[in-house]
Amino acid sequence: MEIPKELERKARSRAILIMKSASDSPKLSYIEFTSFYYELME
Description:
Order of helices and strands: HH
Oligomer: single chain
Strand content: under 5%
Structural class: mainly alpha
Largest sheet: none
Number of strands: 0
Number of domains: 1
């Protein structure tokens, strides 16, 4: 399965954002990440 460049760019920037907020609130970032992961899989 090929991932479109635009989606890949969004995914990367959002992943970085989640990693940054992970130190502040691990639980919240985990929820963010899982919902984000499901978005990708659809």
